[in-house]
Amino acid sequence: MIILVVNAGSSSLKYQLMDSEDGRVLAKGLAERIGINGSQIKYSRPGAEQLVEVLELPNHSVAMQRVLELLTSPECGVVETMDAIDAVGHRVVHGGERFAGSCLIDAEVVAAIRAMIPLSPLHNPPNLAGIQACRNAMPGKPQVAVFDTAFHQTMPAEAYMYALPYSFYAEHGVRRYGFHGTSHQYVAERAIALMGLPLEESKIVTCHLGNGSSITAVRAGRSIDTTMGMTPLAGVPMGTRCGDIDPAIIRFMMNAKSEDGLDIDRMDRIMNHESGVLGISGVSSDFRDLYAAADEGNKRAQLALDMFIYQVAKSVGAYAAAMNGLNGLVFTAGIGENTPALRAAVCERLGYLGIEIDAEANARRGEEVLISTADSRVRVYCIPTNEELMIAKDTARLATGV
Ligand code: ADP
Description:
The protein is α/β, with parallel strands linked by helices and 402 residues long. Helix content is 38%, strand content 19%. The protein contains 15 helices and 14 strands. Residues 210-212, 239, 286-288, 333-335, 338-339 line the site of adenosine-5'-diphosphate (ADP).
């Protein structure tokens, strides 16, 4: 089936038209600066140069309409008419406890995604705008929502509850939800297929290491714990997010700096945008810059890398304990797929689990590869993630009702 995969942000709309059977990408691109001056649409097809069209995009609906015109245009299109597009799959960030899997979108699902806005105020509103834009542009076309949180709905209560008064969970949904679920599920399924183990025996840790990073324990193909929490701020340090800190630090910092007007919004901005490896190094949130700076002797860049590696290794160890064993470890996303030195450094700390890395295999980047030796007690993989394919497959399955 030909599926349009849509990932709508507050001022952007990423799209990919793909064949859900073989994962072939027909065309993809990005509308950016929607509702802001200087908006544009990027559009690319395999074997052709990328088009960049500068035009006014007052809202997501106008952007979607133009994307559809490009996809069906006689000059640069890849399908003849919109009829060739079988269904649309949307990435939706927060599905709360309501969605443990993908679902066909109807008025009730839209209302449920809207009801989840308090849990994800930055992401669910633009996701809804993307859904509405597609409903306007393609009325009657099946549309499917694929949630970042859904894969983690199998976590047991002992893993997802916070030790706060129970009423905050019961009345407001304060609990761990976890994110990057589509990515964790995709790479875990790939690893299980590559390992050739019976599903029930598989105990895998998946490390999605990108601008945002999270680590998940996947036992028998099901998420049983993950480092992100009620929001994507929790867990290991990230590009600009602090990850786990002592919660009492927030009050302490606000009091210590109160004369400077460190209110809760400023605090939130510090923890989300000025912390992580950027905050520690003062250099960059990008790991390529950190490695370059550390190579030149920048100690704070080295410290940021060491802290990240330490926390990733610590999380893997915690999840080996949570699953009472480990037979697979996966690295994915921008950093996980492209940084052999970081993979090696994490694995060096995990020797006690019987992990041995094959230096030659580990030197490869951005491809699906076994990077552990034949003797390693845990099979370690680099697996490029493919959230779009996962979304396309779920969409095709739900749109055909099988
Ligand atoms: P997002 O979470 O925004 O999807 P990505 O998964 O693309 O992010 O990851 C972005 C991170 O990946 C950046 O910090 C960057 O340092 C890292 N990265 C991407 N490509 C490379 C590369 N070739 N070598 C090292 N790091 C890379």
